[in-house]
């Protein structure tokens, strides 16, 4: 197990994998989709940040819901623990085994089942890669209501299971609104068909919501239906500099008011994040002339009328410039320039990954207090760490990253529990969008009350009585036995 995993003991009630198990899986999936190859397993055992590593000896690649059901039914009867894995881009150690859990990846289940051009409703299998869905929808004249930097690898099943937020949430809202239906397989192999394609359906408890954001702890998501908005013809992107955090905040309030329905993204990064991007991302440059800017903001508008949208945005920017909220700015002139602006923001996780060890915190904090935490953390830590801040300012979501030469218990002790206590005191969330995974399973009480966590535990027990689904994650370890 990884360093983080040593805090939790392997649950002795789980069986150890034997050759009969392997043969059984081969009988269902065929030899090819029962992976024991050490190199393939090393990749699946290791998380995106290279921070968590499990020791699984088996990766299963089912091709259908029926196969997922048969595998889970067997694992449940044998008490074999499993970890559902998608694109393995998760950032809280949730997608890799802690010990020897069997890895189940639905990546081969990657078909689009249907698309309705009238309603914009897409039904697909859970293993579809987000970027492929984005590309498909583009050919149909629609867009995905979800976009994020990991789109080239993450799967829609993983997105749903983490309730991923991303770059367009400010406009289209969360997956709790956009996912209309789910098919999921429970630990005992039962298939739950909740694959509705209706916007309105008040027939009792809406159980699909339990699976959105449950991080593989309640079932394996096998199919989803998603409401997608039409693609609008006019997209504008501005890359702006602000002298201080207060100006960024003011700019957000003004943008919401003045740009209204065309505002589709409002992202920010500080100058430490900018330096990091420039140092570690190939071909990335600052769109603005070199100057000592402290903050940068990306504002995107999406609308249906080229000239009026542009006019609206330009008027807004001019006014913001006049009152000093913006100190400099550039408007993208074409699609290439727009993607280079986005690359800067979307490449930040990668830049951090390249620069050494990174402690990642993904917090919801009232916007006006958000940057106080960054400054306090800087004062607390000092060299050789770098405190890097960026995030979805439009949603009150800060990505606070502490970059260090290597993982070091002393640094960690300076950060935690301080960061959680700070956030909890302001009634923020210790996980705005990445989930709890292994990293924050025991920290849940900073954001959820005792009774709420207890009920979560009861639901888990009901759906997965043997606790085989993604053990040691999400729920506090005291509750998960
Ligand atoms: P994985 O990482 O494989 O799994 C994540 C969790 O979901 C695990 O607990 C796993 O067990 C579970 N899971 C996966 N598939 C299934 C399934 N079919 N059924 C049940 N459980 C399943 N997140 C955001 O919210 N917003 C962002 O803007 C954002 N940007 C990112 C940028 C980068 C560069 C990276 C590396 C990550 C980013 N993330 C972001 C993290 C985000 O959680 C993941 O990118 C994504 O949603 C996870 O999808 P995945 O397929 O990689 O799932």
Automatic annotation (TrEMBL):
<comment type="similarity">
    <text>Belongs to the FAD-binding oxidoreductase/transferase type 4 family.</text>
</comment>
<protein>
    <recommendedName>
        <fullName>D-2-hydroxyglutarate dehydrogenase</fullName>
        <ecNumber>1.1.99.39</ecNumber>
    </recommendedName>
</protein>
<keyword id="KW-0560">Oxidoreductase</keyword>
<feature type="domain" description="FAD-binding PCMH-type">
    <location>
        <begin position="52"/>
        <end position="231"/>
    </location>
</feature>
<dbReference type="GO" id="GO:0071949">
    <property type="term" value="F:FAD binding"/>
</dbReference>
<dbReference type="GO" id="GO:0051990">
    <property type="term" value="F:(R)-2-hydroxyglutarate dehydrogenase activity"/>
</dbReference>
<keyword id="KW-0274">FAD</keyword>
<keyword id="KW-0285">Flavoprotein</keyword>
<dbReference type="GO" id="GO:0005739">
    <property type="term" value="C:mitochondrion"/>
</dbReference>
